[in-house]
């Protein structure tokens, strides 16, 4: 299946559901193994080893926006479920995902896509013949008017990489990347307002007559990075070293609750509800490195391996969040203004021991330190007994304490934490193509700097995960079969729970996920089928109730048929491919005893390649199902009734209707 | 016998079961009524705390909305806020003119929406004809008429209470002042928990509106040759009777929430 962006490649991994309530430039919300990983906070994302998770992002610590990755340049995606590999670091709660970049199609390629909702995409790729697939350049320009109100987007992305060699065994790789986008988002719709005809399914309150916003929801994002890798193979050792620098900026304008939260406070001029629009701005600079030495030796007649490595990153993050007046777009309140200096250094040892031909013991341990130095530029926001002669009227960041004692509005807080994370996997087999495995691991997710400022001393949440499974790999007639069945359990001591008032996940109580996943891959001469099913139960540790928003059932199937037609044209064959992707997501528990609807969508694509030319027609949501991509149950008031709506009510974000896209492409100069 | 977790998961998935987060969301009817001992279409006769024999011929109250909340207000907290802290657990946002002399259930025109958990502790009755923050609202909130008698002296009276610019405190534009919305909300009224069946009943006893009123202090109404409660705090005749009626309108005593299975 063609993928609209790099996140969609994740759907090939079992149990993954992607949603996006924030628009095309907003990171995909990822559900994995029963985790509502939000924008990646529970998955360690990287591209060629360079981290994507953003430490210090105010919208969510570990926010991971993969839209900068041009999907045609993804050579492979390695998804590890659970925190069982010592190489996995911060944010590897549900697992990790590493994109490996490469371009197999050499020469100069260009593609133009046009389709529904004014969507256009220009793509150019260049892979010098004779060079490694890891040497390439690519760029895309994309724009769409969106499938509904206030859903337009524009973006541009460029990626380049050069892999060279030195000496007899050494290699190096230089990568660069640039990405920028401007987008809008429709936001949520109250179910009652849609049912009563006050607003359309694909509409936005921002454009409605009763909740018009001067500044519509949406945002901007950019990412620029440089990375360099070097690898050498002296003797029985593989040494590698990587350095990277990332500049990331983001603006996100969202309003989940309408006109609900701006209650009259004692030290404010009299006002009505001015609107809950959040204007969040993040500016980050990340510098880091990773390196490892991998040794191998023979023992018991088998190859044994030991790897020692480190990962280090420093983040300078500025995050502000203000509330905007609906009518004018003018900020009327500052919620947060943080300057954070964050450190994260991990050291690991990984063993791959094979005492017997049928037994492998993998694992080791990781030690991780995370440090916080947070300057809160708006540290004092309330004062119980202000100076009566000079009360701080309408000020967000106060300069007085109780009874008028003066103070500076800013304050620094710092803390740190060290975690020791043992991890191990035992693999027995194969026995008649069957392998058994058992894994145990501990992981961490560093907390939002905002919590450090609020006095939370623990620098991270801890995760303990267990997994046991059986896998089959073999041939059935002419088909290659890979299948596996896994049971898993993950316990988090403090989980992230979505809070619509903050517009992001906030730290909550502990949770436990227990589940099963089954995956099957069938590959033959003319077909490729990948299907997976995940069942999971996510509960709170304190009262055993279900964790809201987490789907209990996720099924995904990707099928492809490919063959060369027996009718060559001008002596050249026509290669064709038919593919389909089916997604089913079961009902999700929502707060206050509600449950969501199910999701069922089919995407399809047909393509033909002849000589240097390619023609592809693809459709998303082929059945044109009107579905609710995200469903929530919380209080919101969008002025759709004469009196405010203050009680939790179903709201949703609309999933896209059927869309058709036609792509024309050519390639010249390839080998 | 305890099932294996995976077997339970498969069974749950196959049956379409979804784990529950707790509580339930319900839509239910809300009714308002006069006191249970009133007789429909007949005047309500009573003696107020100042010793006046009152025959009430008319008592109508306009309710803009009704809300129930999980939190009891903290003394001194949210000094000027109009919304309660914590989660609202029920709302009736369709307005209703209630005949307070009728003990029968008068249904609000649209169903209310609520959740069963957490339990409701406090209720709010919004006395408004439109936006709670609007500076003006010409809606007659309370309309009363009757006759008060004491020691042979009889005082036929009328009264109309509005909550508009006439209630905007002189200092309320400044910080720490009283926003107009506060004048339009009666709270904290003892609430009842939302049930999955039945309806919410709000009984309003108009007798409490006249507690302590000395009808002999009523100003003359030249248009009716009777007496009238003043609706304008800035005029001389407003105090004490107009002030008392307006104050009593905002006391919680006249308002009682209950959950009922009555049709």
Q: What class, by secondary structure content of chain B?
A: mainly beta
Assembly of the depicted chains = heterodimer
Count of helical stretches of chain B: 3
What does the average pLDDT of chain B come to?
87
Descriptive notes:
The complex is a heterodimer of chains A (671) and B (263). Helices cover 1% and strands 57% of the residues of chain A. Chain A has 671 residues and is mainly beta. Chain A has one domain: Maltoporin, Chain A (Beta Barrel), CATH 2.40.170. In chain A, strand 4 and strand 5 (50-51) form a beta hairpin. Chain A is globular. The N and C termini of chain B lie far apart (45 Å).
Tag the structure with descriptive keywords.
heterodimer, A: mainly beta, Maltoporin, Chain A, 22-stranded antiparallel β-barrel, 4-stranded mixed sheet, 57% strand, globular, B: 263 residues, mainly beta, 7-stranded mixed sheet, 6-stranded antiparallel sheet, 3 helices, 17 strands
Give the structure's gist in a few sentences:
The complex is a heterodimer of chains A (671) and B (263). With 671 residues, chain A is mainly beta.
Question: What is the fold's blueprint, element by element?
Answer:
The complex is a heterodimer of chains A (671) and B (263).
Chain A: E1 16-19, E2 29-32, E3 35-36, E4 43-47, E5 50-51, E6 74-81, E7 95-101, E8 107-115, E9 119-127, E10 136-144, E11 153-166, E12 170-184, E13 189-190, H1 191-195, E14 218-232, E15 237-254, E16 277-299, E17 302-324, E18 331-356, E19 359-376, E20 411-431, E21 434-446, H2 449-453, E22 460-476, E23 479-492, E24 496-499, E25 504-507, E26 511-523, E27 527-540, E28 553-564, E29 574-585, E30 599-610, E31 613-620, E32 628-634, E33 649-654, E34 659-668
Parallel strand pairs in A: 4-7
Antiparallel strand pairs in A: 1-2, 2-3, 4-5, 6-7, 8-9, 8-34, 9-10, 10-11, 11-12, 12-14, 13-33, 14-15, 15-16, 16-17, 17-18, 18-19, 19-20, 20-21, 21-22, 22-23, 23-26, 24-25, 26-27, 27-28, 28-29, 29-30, 30-31, 31-34, 32-33
Chain B: H1 5-15, E1 25-28, E2 30-33, E3 44-47, E4 53-63, E5 65-69, E6 88-92, E7 96-99, E8 106-107, E9 112-115, E10 122-126, E11 142-150, E12 153-161, H2 180-183, E13 185-190, E14 199-204, E15 220-221, E16 226-229, H3 241-249, E17 255-260
Parallel strand pairs in B: 2-14, 12-16
Antiparallel strand pairs in B: 1-9, 2-8, 3-4, 4-7, 4-11, 5-6, 5-10, 6-9, 10-13, 11-12, 14-17, 15-16
């Amino acid at each position: 299946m063609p993928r609209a962006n790099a996140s969609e490649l994740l759907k090939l991994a079992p149990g993954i559901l992607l949603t996006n309530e924030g628009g095309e430039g907003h990171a995909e919300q990822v559900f994995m193994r029963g985790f509502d990983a939000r924008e990646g906070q529970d998955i360690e994302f990287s591209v060629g080893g360079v981290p994507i998770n953003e430490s210090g992002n105010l919208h969510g610590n570990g926010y991971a926006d993969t839209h900068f990755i041009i999907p045609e340049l993804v050579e492979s995606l390695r998804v590890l479920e659970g925190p069982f590999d010592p190489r996995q670091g911060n944010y590897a709660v549900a697992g990790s995902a590493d994109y490996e970049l490469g371009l197999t199609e050499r020469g100069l390629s260009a593609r133009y896509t046009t389709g529904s909702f004014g969507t256009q995409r220009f793509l150019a790729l260049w892979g010098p013949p004779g060079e490694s697939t890891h040497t390439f350049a690519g760029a895309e320009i994309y724009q769409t008017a969106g499938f509904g109100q206030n859903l337009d987007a524009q973006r541009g992305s460029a990626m380049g990489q050069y892999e060279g060699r030195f000496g007899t065994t050494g290699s190096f790789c230089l990568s660069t990347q640039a990405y920028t986008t401007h987008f809008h988002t429709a936001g949520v719709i109250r179910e009652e307002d849609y049912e009563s005809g006050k607003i359309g399914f694909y509409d936005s309150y921002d454009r409605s007559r009763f909740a018009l916003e001067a500044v519509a929801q949406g945002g901007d994002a950019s990412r620029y990075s440089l990375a360099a890798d070097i690898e050498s193979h002296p003797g029985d050792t593989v040494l590698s070293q990587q350095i990277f620098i990332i500049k990331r900026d983001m603006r996100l304008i969202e309003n989940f609750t309408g006109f609900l939260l701006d209650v009259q406070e004692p030290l404010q001029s009299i006002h009505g509800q001015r609107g809950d629009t959040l204007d969040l701005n993040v500016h980050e600079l990340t510098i880091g490195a990773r390196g490892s030495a991998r040794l191998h030796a023979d023992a018991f007649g088998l190859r044994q391996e030991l790897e020692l490595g480190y990962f280090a990153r420093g983040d300078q993050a500025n995050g502000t969040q203000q509330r905007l007046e609906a009518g004018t777009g003018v900020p009327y309140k500052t919620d947060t203004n943080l300057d954070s200096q964050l450190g994260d250094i991990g050291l690991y040892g990984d063993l791959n021991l094979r005492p017997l031909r049928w037994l492998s013991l993998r694992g080791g341990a990781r030690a991780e330190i995370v440090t916080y130095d947070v300057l809160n530029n708006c540290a004092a926001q309330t004062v119980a007994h202000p100076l009566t002669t000079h009360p701080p009227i309408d000020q967000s960041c106060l300069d007085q304490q109780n009874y008028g004692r003066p103070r500076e509005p800013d304050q620094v807080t710092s803390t740190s934490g060290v975690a020791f994370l043992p991890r191990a996997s035992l693999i027995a087999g194969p026995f008649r193509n069957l392998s058994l495995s058992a894994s145990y691991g501990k992981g961490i997710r560093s907390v939002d700097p905002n919590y450090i400022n609020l006095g939370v001393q623990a620098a991270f949440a801890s995760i303990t995960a267990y997994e046991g499974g059986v896998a089959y790999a073999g041939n059935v007639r002419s088909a290659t079969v890979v299948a596996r069945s896994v049971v898993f359990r993950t316990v988090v001591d403090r989980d992230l729970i979505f809070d619509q008032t903050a517009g992001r996940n906030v730290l909550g109580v502990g949770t436990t996920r227990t589940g099963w996943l089954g995956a099957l891959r069938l590959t033959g001469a003319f077909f490729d089928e990948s299907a997976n099913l995940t069942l999971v139960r996510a509960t709170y540790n304190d009262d055993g109730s279900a964790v809201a928003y987490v789907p209990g059932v996720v099924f995904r199937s990707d099928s492809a048929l490919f063959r060369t037609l027996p009718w060559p044209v001008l002596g050249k064959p026509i290669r064709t491919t038919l593919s389909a992707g089916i997604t089913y997501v079961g009902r999700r528990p929502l707060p206050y005893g509600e449950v969501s609807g199910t999701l069922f969508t089919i995407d399809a694509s047909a393509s033909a390649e002849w000589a240097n030319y390619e023609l592809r027609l693809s459709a998303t949501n082929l059945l044109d199902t009107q579905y609710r991509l995200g469903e929530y149950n919380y209080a919101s008031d969008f002025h759709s009734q004469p009196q405010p709506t203050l009680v939790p009510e179903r709201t949703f974000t609309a999933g896209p209707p059927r869309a058709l896209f036609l792509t024309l492409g050519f390639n010249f100069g390839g080998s | 016998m305890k099932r294996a977790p995976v077997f339970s998961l498969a069974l749950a998935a196959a049956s379409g079961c979804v784990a529950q987060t707790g509580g339930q969301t319900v839509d239910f009817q809300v009714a308002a009524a006069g006191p249970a001992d009133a007789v429909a279409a007949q005047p309500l006769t009573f003696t107020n705390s100042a010793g006046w024999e009152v025959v009430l011929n008319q008592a109508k109250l306009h309710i803009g909305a009704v809300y129930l909340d999980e939190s009891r207000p903290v003394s001194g907290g949210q000094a000027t806020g109009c919304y309660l802290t914590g989660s609202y657990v029920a709302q009736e946002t369709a307005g209703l003119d209630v005949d307070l002399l009728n003990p029968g259930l008068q249904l609000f025109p649209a169903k209310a929406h609520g959740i069963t958990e957490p339990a409701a502790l406090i209720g709010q009755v919004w006395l408004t004809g439109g936006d709670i923050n609007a500076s003006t609202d010409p809606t007659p909130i309370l309309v009363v008429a009757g006759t008060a008698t004491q020691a042979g002296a009889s005082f036929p009276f009328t009264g109309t209470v509005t909550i508009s610019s006439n209630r905007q405190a002189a200092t309320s534009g400044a910080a720490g002042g009283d926003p107009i919305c506060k004048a339009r909300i009666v709270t904290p009224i003892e609430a009842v928990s939302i049930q999955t069946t039945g309806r919410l009943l709000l009984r309003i006893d108009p007798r409490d509106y006249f507690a302590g009123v000395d009808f002999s202090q009523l100003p003359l109404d030249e248009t009716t040759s009777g007496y009238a409660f003043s609706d304008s705090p800035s005029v001389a005749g407003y105090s004490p009777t107009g002030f008392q009626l307006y104050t009593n309108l905002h006391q919680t005593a006249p308002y009682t929430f209950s959950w009922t299975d009555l049709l």
